[in-house]
Design goal:
The complex is a heterodimer. Helix content of chain A is 75%, strand content 0%. Chain A is an all-alpha fold. Chain A has one domain. In chain A, helix 2 packs parallel to helix 3, helix 4 packs across helix 10 and helix 5 packs antiparallel against helix 6. Chain A is globular. Chain A starts with 8 loop residues before the first helix and ends in a 15-residue tail after the last helix. The longest helix of chain B is centred in the middle third of the chain and has 31 residues. Classes of the chains: A mainly alpha, B mainly alpha. Chains A and B meet through helix 11 and helix 12 of A and helix 2 of B.
């Protein structure tokens, strides 16, 4: 089975991944070029965006992706990189803000209108985004899906696209830096984040004792612990970002600028 | 013991601010959350899992209900630790922090959490025990006893650090 990976749909998949990464890298660079005469774009945003692409690339191509076909631990490393760390870094790269700066006004308005669509609004609600993210993981690890990921290139592609998109939307709904006219209140985002973190750690412990079919016990235990601790690290970062947002919004204002609606 | 009176330190521009914040309450809340959070997320992880190796990553007798409860306990512990620190930072940027009062609240928070952990997690839900392969009674007595002691000390400290005069920011 492993030998067939070198040809056919699998190599097509690798090409598609490279293509998407190149487009994402070139698109960001082009937007930076177009806006070079405007107020400077924070260097850290650029660095975060490219670090995110690097993480996604490391998860999907090269040694980690190769090892993930045989090792559950390597698969889990790929999952943490692709579904948690890469989305966090990409969200902090503020691609929507950059796109709105770079696009001509008419196109920027179209993009804004698109982002205000009821469907987008629903999917980017923290509760829905968390359900899509955690639900996808539960399906992947508690059903036969995990097995099919390694045999069918189509399932493989669908699962990985879901993992990265759900990870991105979830992260953006909790601690996004791009403009979001319908951002949920801090209390809602906090409750969703705590619930998600709990679900993630419960799933990790469940996998520790219930290895997916075909995975050796020691491999499952190492992978489950990696999922638990690395997941914690990313989730704790999300908590800090979420509360840092509250901290900034709740800052006491000077009497001169304190309006009747100043945040308390 | 001198009671810190930070109401005098409140800058003159404060009254203009909308929505008054009770800074004493916020100081105490910050300490309680931070203390309980540290007890939940860090004391357990660093001391009992990593240093003493008394706890295991997964106790095989764990039921699914207990596992879920533990997951929430764990996530909530991290959240309130960080929340407590942000509240402290918020008090600090508004006024002088009453550190003794904050420390009193931290001690109380640690005690409260240890009590909940010792009674509910260990004894009622039986998620995990303090140590395995030993007679648990002395450990439970030490655990719950120290929790009660911490709470009593914390409450006493809170009582002695009560701010005098106007407690509420206008």
């Amino acid at each position: 089975m492993t030998h067939q990976h070198a040809a056919g749909p699998w190599s097509l998949l690798a090409t598609a991944v490279v293509l998407v990464l190149v487009v994402a890298a070139a698109g960001y660079a082009a937007a930076l070029w177009v806006t070079r005469h405007r107020s400077p774009w924070p260097t850290r945003r650029t660095a975060l965006w490219y670090a995110g692409l690097l993480c996604a690339g490391a998860a999907l191509l090269g040694p980690v992706a190769e090892a993930a076909r045989a090792s559950f631990t390597a698969h889990m490393l790929g999952h943490v990189l692709l579904g948690m760390l890469a989305p966090l870094l990409l969200v902090l790269g503020a691609p929507v803000t950059l796109a709105l700066r770079a696009l001509p006004p008419a196109r920027a308005r179209t993009l804004t209108r698109l982002l205000r669509q009821p469907a987008v609004r629903t999917v980017t609600h923290p509760v829905v985004a968390a359900a899509l993210n955690a639900g996808g993981l539960w399906l992947l690890y508690t059903t036969d899906l995990y097995h099919h990921v390694h045999t069918s290139a189509l399932v493989h592609a669908a699962v990985h696209v879901h993992v990265v998109l759900a990870g991105y939307v979830f992260t953006a709904s909790i601690a996004g830096v791009d403009p979001d006219p319908h951002r949920a209140p801090v209390a809602v985002r906090a409750a969703v984040l705590v619930t998600f973190m709990a679900a993630h750690s419960v799933l990790a412990k469940w996998l520790y004792v219930h290895p997916p079919a075909g995975v050796a016990v020691a491999d499952a235990q190492a992978g489950a612990q990696l999922m638990y601790y690395a997941g914690d690290a990313v989730d704790v970062t999300l908590i800090v970002l979420l509360l840092a947002g509250w901290y900034t919004a709740a800052r006491p204002r000077d009497a001169a600028i304190a309006g009747p609606r100043a945040a308390s | 013991m001198a009671t810190p009176d930070f109401s005098a330190d409140v800058p003159a521009r404060r009254p203009a601010e909308q929505g008054s914040v009770d800074l004493d309450r916020r100081t105490v809340l910050s300490g309680l959350l931070f203390g309980a959070g540290v007890a939940a997320s860090m004391i357990d992880l660093f001391i009992f899992h990593l240093v003493l190796h008394w706890h295991h990553f997964y106790d095989r007798s764990t039921t699914e209900v207990a596992l879920t409860a533990d997951g929430f306990f764990h996530a909530f512990g991290w959240f309130i630790t960080i929340w407590g620190l942000f509240l402290l930072a918020d008090v600090r940027r508004r006024t002088e922090v009453a550190w003794r009062r904050w420390a009193a609240a931290v001690v109380t928070g640690v005690g409260l959490l240890q009590l909940v952990d010792g009674v509910i997690d260990h004894k009622v839900l039986r998620i995990h025990q303090i140590r395995y392969g030993v007679d648990l009674l002395p450990y439970d007595v030490a655990w719950i006893g120290s929790a009660v002691l911490l709470i009593l000390v914390g409450l006493l400290m809170l009582r002695r650090t009560r701010p005098s005069g106007a407690r509420r920011e206008p």
